[in-house]
Amino acid sequence: MSKLDTTGRVLSGWNPEEPESWDAGIAWRTLAITTFSMVIAFCVFFLVSAIAPKLKLIGFDLTAGQLYWLTAMPGLSGGLIRLIYMFLPPIMGTRRLIGISSLLYLIPMLGWFFAVQDTSTPYLVLLLLSFLCGIGGGTFSGYMPSTGYFFPKRLSGTALNVQAGLGNLGMSIIQMVGPWLMGFGLLGIAFIAPQREADNHAIFVHNAAIFFVPWTILAAVLAFTLLKDVPVKANIRQQIDIFGNANTWCMTLLYVLTFGLFSGFSAQFGLLINNTFGASSSLAQAGYQNLPLGATYAFLGPLIGSLVRVAWGPLCDRVSGGFWTFVSAVGMAITLGWAALYLHPDSPSAFRPFLWAMLVMFFFAGIGNAGTFKQMPMIMPKRQAGGAIGFTAAVACFGPFFVGVALSAMDAAVWFWICAAYSALCAVICWIRYARPGAPFPG
Fold first, then answer.
1. How far apart are CA 434 and CA 443, in angstroms?
2. Where along the chain do its domains lie?
3. How many CA atoms are closer than 13 Å to the CA of 283, on its beta-carbon side?
4. Which DSSP state fits 229?
5. What's the rounded Cα separation, in Å, for the pair 313 and 45?
6. Class assignment of domain 19-435?
7. Could you give the CA distance from residue 72 to residue 55 in angstroms, rounded to a whole number?
8. How far apart are CA 368 and CA 247, in angstroms?
9. Counting beta carbons within 10 angstroms of the beta carbon of residue 193, is it exposed (0 to 12), middle (13 to 18) or buried (19 or more)?
10. pLDDT tens, position by position, 221-244
11. What is the pTM of this model?
């Protein structure tokens, strides 16, 4: 057993499974800094979902379908970027990966800051900026494995779900504070003329993009100065052995269920409410007044799912990740079918049961996100677990894209029933392989 040496940028003799070769202070410091950066990453990932509901109000001539596509594009690019980032942790190391990624978030932030100030900005430019927001979601597949290197298996569920859960809160933070930030001139940039809503009310849409710029610079500085690397090295050829492990594919199906649908419906939640129950719905055309505003409720889904993910991490360490993933799949099947019953409303009274069905669905999705991230380090070798986490996260990141495309291409109720059926299928797979007594891969 080699002696632990923490003096250099690369830790020497690091082995988290041996107390003598593990430094808890370095591990938790790494978790804190990477999680801070990940919160900002998910704010960037969901930046468009906060801005899109305001674009028509300030004069952009966009259809409902075009808005769905704008909020879907970060999911497409995020998934593609994750397929690259999943290979980077053992190549780049944690310090450079987190530092460089934090600086990349400045690109879409500054792009949207300038774009929304001119309503003649071409739609293709808006699509490109939406695509670039996928950087925020894509880096997840590098953050999680690189953080996992710092913790023993007994703490993997807690550590990874604290990072993922608090990081996912960025989705809710941008949707919650975005509308508030748009309501006034930020200190120092109030000289920028506000946009005007239809009723001539001043609104500063660009604030939602520029507010997080100082924080992402801080995240980069902290990463470059305080983080270290672990001696885990593997080239791309060595890492692709995860595809020969059947658990990689089964866990991908389960994580597409939990995080894919969670992120997809979170990104589209505000628009879905507006188009089904709000100002863009048939209810508005029928003359109903005081209809719900999607921006008022959009943050609730990611908030619930993210907090539940954090809370359930320790429970997964104590019980079983597979059991909780099974509970999640069953719960999501029931709640998605429940929500589907209210997607052709004939009165505003249908909104309340639909909202409750969706919020409970987000709750079960959070449980499943915690369960899957406990399972992978338990049922796979440590290096393979890192690669599998990266790959499953990459595929699941396409969730906002596929959910957005589906909602723009088919009846919403049909899509919800398809998702409910998929949830039921995943419950069967999870029970047989991971959750039942005597399952071949308990975790």
1. 7
2. 19-435
3. 23
4. B
5. 23
6. mainly alpha
7. 15
8. 16
9. exposed
10. 999 999 988 776 666 666 677 888
11. 0.79
